């Protein structure tokens, strides 16, 4: 077995330790946990993309993103809404032209996930002294430059230290809860004097809310004892570790919780240090059980053990563990025509919140695909020449996660080996040479039928703790590799998405029903109850309920008109298209490129534009119509000949959603020949009934891309600059990650300055932040004749477990940059808010006896917030079906001294400022702009966009 | 019992006496024993297999990959602490749901001794006692044949035990494992085995694994093995039903998903059918077509040129079946063609059965004679520009 170790020898040369490393960034520090699989499977499906700024329903989160590319201005928003809200009606595609396929990120699942867990684990907290100085009043007499350098330097050392530390902690610990737990013990509120008393606001209309948390009504009230278990020789595998320990069940007792390296017992062992001997096969392993500490009943460490216990319980309930969650295979749903199976399951965590410890439970789904990599490869073979479309296969397969049946493992495909085939020999661990065919036959009784298929190469899992060990590539036979997650093809197939959405997007009622079922089983399963009683753990079976507040609808100002956003749908699309825009750019010199056979689409688009632009106040002159053929080369040649310095806009009609074409055009127009551009897929212009809507969207989007503005809202801010930061991690190509940094230029927050930071994977943002911030301040100063008095940063793209790192690095870095730009005693203020969209907490309101989604503008700052944080939730978007996902905001630094009311008000209002959607989105606009920018750069152009575009929303 | 964990190689026995050269088996001896069993399983295709003294369940894990086995049982006196590791290795994985077995498989682990009778172990096709008997004291050893040969009376029994003649080649001259009550030479084992075989009407053949090093061939295999086969002629008499007697305690049991369950069959069948129709569809799109009675029909045979089909005979069979056709934007594949695809044929044997199954899972045409799919999907629309 383990052919892989053998296989690796064969490929020794393939492994460039250096190159491989770069990719990892996306992974959470936690290692071996198939981040991939999960991402691949459930994530693909269950947590889809992150593109959709507007809600998508709960479990179906992923679905929302079904269509990716945002560029095509037109459709996007509508499309989004359609999916997000359930899409029924609304003219089908009308709103949502499937516009550009091109920008559709190929592995959406990955990227999205990646970014979420972006940065590397937080370095250990620096000694308090240093930290204080960095954060505080700038002890360093010299400016930020040195500080930055020092920080970077420290960081390196810390990284090393961290790696060692991580290696020391147990696998399990890191695997499951490390991140969340690390974050939850970071006390950020201690520095925020102004909210010492309370982090609760008062504005708005109170509303009774329910949440998917269940209070822990009873838990051990005595001291428990924590022991460290040491293995000699060291054992890596958590399961084996636990098995070895359990050989001494009689000694440690029935009642115990083991996390892979430490053991929690309700009683004290006789000796503080005990040595035991276990047998592993024939090998003798020495276990040393050593007393570490007594845990008081309210120690946060206890919670970690409760979580482990709870997972054990889920297992007892006959749920199948896949990756990190548990699924009920008995309730599987098959989609025969899509070759898909869905298993419903649960995500749970027990954590401490404002006033109590609760169990947060949410429904989640695992997607199984009955399709192998081999199917994919043959499906892409040219039916005539028999030759695989090498490029296309690589595009579809590389970066995807495959699952090998025989050993139940997942691998990420890094390359395809077209030279070898299953008859190739590899060296087994014993040294003997064997072909893949024989190996699988001998080992797993599995026949490989196509002997001409290529092989897949996986460079193995990236583990931070194993940075120094060389990566050994593994070869896999495509026929035995099952694909995971949703493919692009599936995402583009509305039937697949519709069927999946029906099953996975649970509305509040169904969600509650599922969770009730879980809680009931816990109450009634005898084994589970026995286990819980051992620890005296009890859970309430009802949702926790409390009072939230609904903020007033926000008034939108567009030109001379003002209107409120719709209280239920959080949208103003009708209003916005029926009058002049806020800041209009006329279209004088512009080009339309279209492939010959799409002339019809192009000309009907022009006609429609001519009809819709006058209402919006856009003066549009005749565009220069240029015919091209369907290649990147042809587009760029035409552009080269016709784009001049006067050209304001280039509109490209694309014949199909080919990503390379889209990428090529964008690359040329963002880097070589900086011009705002708009791509539209011809097919979206096919339907006459939706054409007007699409033309309107395109006109608005072009207006924004040229530097215009659509509307504004009152934010209550004066002389403050808003910044949004988000990261994109290109796991697929293991390239660098990109952080988008978007800052406001004017007081009204209608113009934004966009920069990107390219970072080596896994690096902190630190250094790039300084440059960006300085450039942003300079531009603001140029526009406003003075420097902003306050900087408000919305930081998205922070993974679990990185809170401390933000506190230790990013915040001090920004402060030190400010010090270097501002004169002494300038009194510039900084507020830093961490934005989190991937959360499992949901809120519901009860109306007419049924649970429903809360209205947009619902703010929650009690009960499920944390005592040590200045945090709150806002449900800003509206979803039509499914359960809305609230966004979590955590103010970790605030010298502006915002009251809860003011910061909530501001945050909610910023969610109205995204110009690609006349509605409220999930996150503050700058965050989403930053996301769009990072995404475009990471997916399509791969280089820094030309600086002349930076003050326009060219990536919209 | 249950110590077939023993010796990865023989290295561990000689740690104290590093001066003597270590004999190392490749592959390790324990694997050679397991492979011996695997080969026998391969050869005889037993349905019910029991491993007495399963130890860490490695053999059971290896055997679960054999498609012929439907019941796999392990018995061990130490089966008390079935570990996570065993459970996760023996439980069905996600893969087992994606590619269900043809036949059901249940794996059960019991705690119990090979000298106790439990009626649930009666009627097996194969029982293995790998490195088991040498752990029995003389009293148990005396009871052993009566239980295993007399009462359980499986079709085939494999018994392996150390060959003491080999021991001098090892540095340490004691028993190979502390718990061994005895280690027999070939003569001792063969005498015992032949007596037992005679008594219970089995025939026995002797062999072994772990060949001696050059120059020491006379000592024989390191592990000696006796393969007992019941003499079928007289086997009938043992079919008298035995009273239910449950002595063993079940410590673990699991059932694997299989194609016997309709839901699984439907899933695999529809995946296979779609795979076949997809390959024909792509072919159809690029091949020349003609119009016949409102149907677009390929001029050629429309047989996929790769994958799916292995032999020329299979190809010929497909070629002679009704061709797929296209009406409007829909592509139709006659069921009679689908069933000629080897992987489909493996799952269902008649067009009627295929029809009744597919009608539950996929879309068929009106008279239920053909599968209906969309002619174009995203790929064919964008990539195969024609």
TrEMBL record, chain A:
Residues 119-128 have a biased composition (Pro residues). It comes from the Eukaryota. The keyword ATP-binding does not apply. Keywords: RNA-binding, RNA-mediated gene silencing, Translation regulation. The keyword Zinc does not apply. Residues 1-151 are annotated as: Disordered. Residues 46-65, 85-95, 137-146 have a biased composition (Gly residues). Transmembrane segments: none annotated. Residues 649-942 form the Piwi domain. InterPro entries: PAZ_dom, PAZ_dom_sf, Piwi, RNaseH-like_sf, RNaseH_sf. Residues 372-485 form the PAZ domain. Belongs to the argonaute family. This is Piwi-like protein 1. The gene is LOC140594319.
UniProtKB/TrEMBL annotation, chain B:
The keyword GTP-binding does not apply. The keyword Lipid metabolism does not apply. It catalyses: small RNA 3'-end nucleotide + S-adenosyl-L-methionine = small RNA 3'-end 2'-O-methylnucleotide + S-adenosyl-L-homocysteine + H(+). Transmembrane segments: none annotated. It comes from the Eukaryota. Keywords: Acetylation, Magnesium, Metal-binding, Methyltransferase, RNA-binding, RNA-mediated gene silencing, S-adenosyl-L-methionine, Transferase. Its EC number is 2.1.1.386. It is an enzyme of class 2 (transferase). Its cofactor is Mg(2+). Belongs to the methyltransferase superfamily. HEN1 family. PANTHER family: HEN1, SMALL RNA 2'-O-METHYLTRANSFERASE. This is Small RNA 2'-O-methyltransferase. It comes from Vulpes vulpes.
């Amino acid at each position: 077995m383990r052919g892989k170790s053998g296989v690796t020898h064969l490929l020794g040369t393939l492994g460039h330790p250096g190159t491989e490393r770069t990719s990892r960034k996306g992974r959470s520090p936690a290692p071996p946990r198939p981040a991939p699989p999960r991402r691949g499977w459930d994530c693909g499906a269950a947590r889809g993309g992150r593109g959709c700024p507007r809600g998508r329903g709960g479990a179906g989160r992923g679905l929302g993103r079904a269509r990716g590319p945002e560029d095509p201005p037109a459709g996007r928003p509508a499309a989004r809404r359609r999916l997000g809200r359930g899409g029924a009606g609304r003219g089908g595609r009308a709103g949502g032209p499937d516009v550009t396929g091109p920008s559709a990120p190929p592995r959406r699942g990955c990227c999205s996930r990646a970014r979420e867990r972006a940065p590397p684990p937080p370095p250990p907290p620096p000694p308090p002294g240093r930290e204080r100085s960095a954060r505080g009043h700038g002890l360093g007499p010299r400016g930020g430059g040195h500080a930055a350098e020092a920080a970077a330097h420290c960081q390196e050392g810390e990284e090393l230290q961290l790696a060692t530390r991580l290696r020391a902690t147990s696998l399990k610990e890191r695997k499951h809860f490390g991140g969340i737990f690390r974050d939850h013990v970071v006390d950020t509120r201690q520095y925020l004097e102004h909210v010492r008393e309370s982090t609760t606001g008062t504005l708005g209309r109170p509303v009774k809310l329910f949440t998917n948390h269940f209070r822990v009504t009873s838990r051990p009230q005595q001291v428990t004892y924590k022991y460290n278990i040491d293995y000699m020789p060291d054992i890596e595998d958590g399961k084996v570790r636990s098995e070895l320990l359990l050989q001494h069940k009689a000694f440690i007792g029935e009642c115990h919780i083991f996390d892979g390296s430490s053991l929690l017992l309700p009683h004290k062992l006789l000796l503080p240090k005990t040595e035991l001997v276990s047998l592993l096969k024939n090998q003798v392993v020495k276990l040393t059980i050593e007393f570490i500490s007594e845990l008081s009943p309210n120690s946060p460490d206890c919670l970690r053990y409760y979580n482990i216990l709870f997972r054990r319980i889920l297992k007892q309930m006959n749920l199948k563990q896949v990756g990190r969650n548990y699924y009920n295979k008995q309730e599987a749903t098959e989609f025969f025509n899509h070759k898909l199976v869905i298993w419903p399951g649960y995500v749970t965590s027990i954590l401490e919140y404002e006033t109590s410890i609760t169990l947060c439970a949410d429904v989640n789904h695992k997607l199984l695909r009955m399709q192998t990599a081999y199917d994919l490869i043959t499906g892409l073979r040219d039916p005539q020449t028999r030759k695989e479309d090498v490029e296309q296969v690589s595009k579809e397969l590389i970066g995807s996660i495959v699952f090998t049946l025989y050993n139940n493992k997942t691998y990420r495909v890094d390359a395809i080996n077209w030279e070898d085939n299953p008859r190739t020999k590899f060296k087994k661990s014993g040294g003997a040479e064997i072909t893949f065919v024989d190996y699988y036959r001998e080992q797993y009784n599995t026949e490989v039928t196509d002997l001409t298929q290529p092989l897949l190469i996986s460079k193995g899992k990236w583990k931070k703790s194993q940075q120094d060990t060389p990566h050994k590539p593994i070869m896999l036979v495509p026929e035995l590799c099952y694909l995971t997650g949703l493919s692009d093809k599936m995402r583009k197939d509305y039937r697949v998405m519709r069927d999946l959405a029906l099953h996975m997007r649970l509305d509040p009622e169904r969600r509650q029903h599922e969770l009730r079922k879980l809680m009931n089983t816990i109450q009634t399963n005898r084994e589970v109850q026995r286990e819980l009683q051992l620890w005296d753990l009890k859970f309430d079976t009802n949702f926790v309920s409390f009072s939230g507040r609904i903020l007033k609808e926000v008034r939108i100002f567009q030109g001379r008109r003002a209107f409120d956003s719709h209280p239920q749908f959080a949208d103003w699309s009708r209003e916005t298209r029926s009058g002049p825009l806020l800041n209009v750019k006329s279209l004088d010199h512009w080009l339309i490129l279209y492939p010959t056979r799409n002339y019809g689409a192009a000309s009907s688009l022009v006609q429609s534009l001519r009809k819709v632009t006058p209402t919006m106040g856009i003066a549009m002159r005749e565009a220069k119509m240029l015919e091209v053929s369907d290649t990147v080369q042809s587009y760029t040649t035409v552009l080269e000949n016709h784009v001049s310095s006067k050209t304001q806009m280039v509109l490209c009609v694309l014949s199909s959603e080919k990503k390379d074409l889209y990428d090529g055009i964008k690359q040329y127009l963002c880097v070589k020949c900086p011009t705002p551009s708009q791509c539209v897929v011809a097919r979206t212009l096919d339907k006459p009934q939706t054409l007007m809507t699409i033309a309107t969207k395109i006109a608005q989007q072009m207006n924004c891309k040229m530097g215009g503005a659509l509307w504004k809202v009152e934010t209550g801010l004066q002389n403050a600059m808003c910044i949004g930061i988000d990261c994109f991690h290109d796991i697929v190509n293991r390239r660098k990650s990109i952080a988008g940094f978007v800052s406001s230029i004017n007081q009204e927050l209608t113009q934004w300055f966009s920069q990107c930071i390219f970072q080596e994977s896994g690096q902190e943002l630190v250094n790039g932040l300084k440059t960006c911030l300085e450039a942003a301040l300079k531009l603001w100063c140029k526009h406003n004749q003075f420097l902003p008095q306050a900087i408000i940063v919305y930081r998205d793209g922070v993974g679990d477990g990185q809170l401390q790192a933000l506190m230790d690095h990013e915040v001090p870095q920004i402060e030190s940059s400010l010090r270097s730009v501002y004169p002494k005693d300038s009194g510039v203020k900084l507020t830093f808010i961490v934005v989190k969209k991937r959360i499992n907490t949901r809120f519901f309101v009860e109306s007419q006896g049924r649970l429903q989604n809360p209205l947009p503008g619902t703010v929650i700052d009690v009960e499920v917030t944390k005592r040590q944080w200045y945090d709150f939730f806002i449900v800003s978007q509206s979803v039509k079906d499914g359960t809305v996902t609230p966004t979590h905001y955590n103010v970790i630094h605030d010298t502006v001294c915002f009251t809860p009311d003011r910061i909530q008000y501001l945050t909610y209002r910023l969610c109205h400022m995204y110009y690609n959607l006349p509605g409220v989105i999930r996150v503050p606009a700058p965050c989403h702009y930053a996301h769009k920018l990072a995404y475009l750069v990471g997916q399509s152009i791969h280089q820094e966009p030309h600086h002349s575009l930076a003050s326009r929303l060219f990536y919209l | 019992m249950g110590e077939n964990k023993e010796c990865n190689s023989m290295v561990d026995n000689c740690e104290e006496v590093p001066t003597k050269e270590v004999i190392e088996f490749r592959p390790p001896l324990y694997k050679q024993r397991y492979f011996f069993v695997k080969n026998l399983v391969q050869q005889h295709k037993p349905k019910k297999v029991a491993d007495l003294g399963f130890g860490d369940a490695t053999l059971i894990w290896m055997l679960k990959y054999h498609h012929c086995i439907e019941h796999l049982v392990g018995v061990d006196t130490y089966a008390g602490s079935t570990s996570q590791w065993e459970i996760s290795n023996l439980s069905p994985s996600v893969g087992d749901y994606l590619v269900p077995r043809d036949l059901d498989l249940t794996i059960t682990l019991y705690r119990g001794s090979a000298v106790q009778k439990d009626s649930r172990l009666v009627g097996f096709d194969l029982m293995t006692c790998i490195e088991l008997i040498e752990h029995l004291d003389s009293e148990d050893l005396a009871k052993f044949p009566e239980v295993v040969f007399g009462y359980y009376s499986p079709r085939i029994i494999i018994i392996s035990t150390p060959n003491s003649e080999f021991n001098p080649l090892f540095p340490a001259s004691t028993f190979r494992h502390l718990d061994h009550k005895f280690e027999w030479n070939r003569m001792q084992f063969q005498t015992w085995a032949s007596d037992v075989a005679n008594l219970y009407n089995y025939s026995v053949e002797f062999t072994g694994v772990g060949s001696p090093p050059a120059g020491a061939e006379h000592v024989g295999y390191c592990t000696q093995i006796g393969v007992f086969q019941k003499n079928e002629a007289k086997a009938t008499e043992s079919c008298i039903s035995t009273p239910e007697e449950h002595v063993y305690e079940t410590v673990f049991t699991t059932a694997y998903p299989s194609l016997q369950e309709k839901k699984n069959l439907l899933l695999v069948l529809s995946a296979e059918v779609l795979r076949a129709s997809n390959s024909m569809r792509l072919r159809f799109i690029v091949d020349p077509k003609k119009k016949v009675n409102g149907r677009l029909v390929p001029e050629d045979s429309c047989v996929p040129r790769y994958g799916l089909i292995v032999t020329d005979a299979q190809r010929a069979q497909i070629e002679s079946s009704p061709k797929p056709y296209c009406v409007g934007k829909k592509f139709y594949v006659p069921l009679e063609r689908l069933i000629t695809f080897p992987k489909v044929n493996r799952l269902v044997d008649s067009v009627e059965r295929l029809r009744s199954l597919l009608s539950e899972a996929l879309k068929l045409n009106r008279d239920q004679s053909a599968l209906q799919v969309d002619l174009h999907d995203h790929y064919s629309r964008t990539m195969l520009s024609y």
